[in-house]
Design a protein that fits this description.
alpha/beta; elongated; two-stranded antiparallel sheet; 2 domains; 21 helices; five-stranded mixed sheet
Length: 477
Amino acid sequence: MSVVADAESPAALAQARPTSPVGRVGWLLPPFVLALYALKPLGPVKDPDTYWHIVAGKHLLASGQFVLQDPFGAASEKAWILNQWLPEVLMDWAYTAYGLPAVAWLLCLGSFIVGVSVMTACRRRGSPLVTALVLALVFVALSGSLSPRPQLVTFTLSAVTTSAWLVTREDGRARWWLVPVTWLWACSHGMWFVGPVVGVVVVVGMWLEHRATWKGAARLALVPALSVAVAGVTPVGPRLFTSPFQVGGVTAYISEWQRPGLTDPAVLAALGLVVVVGVDLVRRRRANWTTMLLAVFAVALSLTWARTVGLGAVIAAPVAAAALQNLLRQPVVTTLRRERVAVAVAGLLSVVAVGVAAPAVASTPALGPNDLDSALGALPGSTVLCNDQLDGGWLLLQHPGLRPTMDTRVELYSAEHIKAYLGFVAGDAGWETYPRQVGCTYAVLPTSAAVVPRLRGSGDWAVVAESEGYVLLKSAR
């Protein structure tokens, strides 16, 4: 059994007395890994979604509209539901104040906060060394997901919520503060429902373990039930509940909604955490339903969609830390003051370093036809552009007067439109139909796009400007 002692009490210090060189410096390991969380994501903004998230925040502040018909794209067909408005407003504030370097800095800060939330959940159940090992595996699992997007809120609050419910499993007390936390979560990211799901999983586990009677389980279940209820009274209203299904018909065309490969390092890291849990459960030879159900949930998230691999690792982290600690048979000591100071110092130094470096490395976007800014800026207002999907958000932010025909807000487009777009950029037979359907009079595309030679040779399109990697063409019709 793990032993918890008061911070820096004689008992705690006795248990914490290092028995090896690693043990003596182990308390420095979590802050070191946390510094990686803050520093590794620094770089030019390359996530195409980041740009339109900034646009969404700006438009919301100007219009106050949470559910609207898209005023920017030329071919979007469905309602635009701003169910991630809180971080989008924050991103716009940062961008308005200091441009893309501020957005890059915000990413690093957000990534550090994700790390701190995971570390805190693990440290309650494991030594500094165990915490650092689990934290490092979670970092690998999150490697493809640490980008300037509202999903950072889901990673953070998933760790907080899972840890809170595990404490409820031990003491039987309901954490009612999770209800307002879920409200904030529902204002920040579309996967807010993960919190209530974790709550239901733990309540079921507690009942199966006879830690809660039917009456006690029903009382605890009020927390996830109320959490769902309050999500319906965000500024988006009841449309919040239907917004996740809007993407349902087009997930086949979204890379992050595909099943991840089993050889992906992120998947291997997430599954590694679950394997540790499984080994501990087998060794104990007794049912721990809560841990098993959480592990199954984590595996489902890690293997079903590429975008939820990291989320699965975050949820598995605290039970993996407890399992690894049990396997090592070491006592758990309450976090010491020096550990908290080390985390604070690591965070402060990291975010300051990022703030100093960001203007030099993140001022120029990592995508989009940046060298064609002048030519695009000279186009008439409301010009409809056939464009590459990944550049759509960049165009919305950098050239708000233009109207691109495709971007990564795929939930706003029909499957038929997406198919037509893919056929166009691939230069498939009948590609000429797409520009007529969407009404584009200009096209800005990567020169590597298969359709570009066909546009050049058709006689109907003339080159207006060209730079390394991109070409701007005008329709003769």
